[in-house]
Amino acid sequence: MLWAQYRKDITVPWDSLLTVENINDYPQKLYSFIKRMISFNDYMDEMLGISYILLPSALLNHCAYLQVYGVAGSGKSTLGYVAAKCRDMPILSSSDTFAAIRNEISEKVFRNPNLLLVWDDLDPKVFTEKPDLYRLLKYGYCRETSKISIAGRNGDVIKFESFCPKIISSIHSLFDESQYPELSRRLLVIEMKKLPNSIGFISPFSINWSGIDKLWSSYWNEDRVKSFLEIKTAISDLNLSVSPDKLIVLIDLLAVLVLGGFCSLSEVPIYLESILNRQKSIKEVSSQQATKELIAYLDEEKDKQDRFAQREGKIIKVYRVNPKHLKLYFEWLKEQGRISEKVSLSSVFSTMRTLGWKLEKDWELTK
Fold first, then answer.
1. Does the global pTM surpass 0.85?
2. Are 86 and 212 in contact, with CB atoms under 8 Å apart?
3. Tell me: the pLDDT tens digits for 14-27?
């Protein structure tokens, strides 16, 4: 029995959901298609997401990595899955060995110079266990310095190119990992949010994606490659007020947006500023999130105690919070990716004191 054939028969062909009659419309059509599967947190996140999928890797000299960030169930893995399908690329995970990833890159580049690496559910702990994987990210963003040398089985030296765009999904704030500053500097971050309960959204796992990668290949014909390079030159001539290190990793994404009709050349300065402000905002919000979560937790605890006292006909004079319960709650927040793993319990306690709480046997706040 052809079990695989039956499995295919219960999926929906992608071309029944994505119709591209004119290849010039491919970027806009793909953008609308993706938004039926994923909910982004901001318009600039959408622009970075779609432009990254469209990037022609073979034409790049520098490329920041794209971290897809958000709480569990927000669609982080979905974006990488869709990108991998649209480009006919593999999906890697933290469990993959360095040798397996090296072989995957070498094999794919040999057959297709427009490599895109999708890395799902990356845990930074893997860098301690497999330091070569960190080297892959540290050196793989600049084509000139992307060759990695490793020792072969017979003592010989093996070199391979690690350069390519990389989409990394993780609940961990990799951009906030002080232990790996080189990774943080190489990351662009987009945030996802859970899909609303709305008619019209589709599951990417119910789609038969076979052949969709041909759209990407058809889009990047010789004329479009020339137009892309001309747009890059035009953007360089705009004398944008941004540091060279930031422009060098954003100029290709901006050129893709102009080429795809998402913005005009005259709008590039506005889009550039918006992207940079959005990146700054994500990182600032990350550092403030622990305080917001703490305040929400304390407000809920006070509300519970008020309701209990009202039922019992008592008057509350002092609110109390169990330190062990508070610790467990913040450990859960870290597991869910709602706060950075770097948030220490001592910093939480310090904020408690700032809010007027005193630590006796329990945390206490006089009403």
1. no
2. yes
3. 999 999 999 999 99
